[in-house]
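Memo to structure team: turn this sequence into C-alpha cells by end of day. - J.P.
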Amino acid sequence: MYRLLLADVYELAGTSRRTSESIARAANQTVARWHVLSVLSEPATAAGAARRLGLSRQSVHRVCGELIRDGLVEAMDNPDHQTSPLLRLTPEGCRVLDQLVERADADRARLLDRAAITSEQLTSARVVIQAAISALDEHSGPVVP
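Reply from structure team:
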C-alpha cells in the first residue's frame, strides 16, 4: 500500500507542477523560480534551499543567481559560513511570491471544491505523509522485520 501512496503523491506533485506553470507564467516566473522563492521566504543558503527542494545544489544556485539579478532575492552575510551567503527575499520578491501564492490558493480552492475535498481531509493526509517522511528520515537502511 505504501508504494501505491507514493505513486499517488508523485502523480499529484507532477499534475500540480504542470498546472502551476500557467500561474507562474502569468507572473512572469517559472515553477522553479517559484519554488526557490518559497523556500527563501526564510533566509537560507543555496545549498540549504537545494536540500529542502530535493534538487541539485548547482541548479538551485543558478536559479538563485537569476533571482538576485532580477532583484527578487538578496545575499547577506552568513555568520556560520563565510563563503556561503544567506539568501532572502527582497520586498519585490515578497510581492511576487505573495502574488503567486494568492493565485495558486484561489485556483486550488476551486479544484478542491469541485473534488469535494475538505480541509479536514487534507489535514489528515498531511499527518500521514509527514509521519512517513519522519520515519524515513530516521531510518537510512531497509526495514528488517
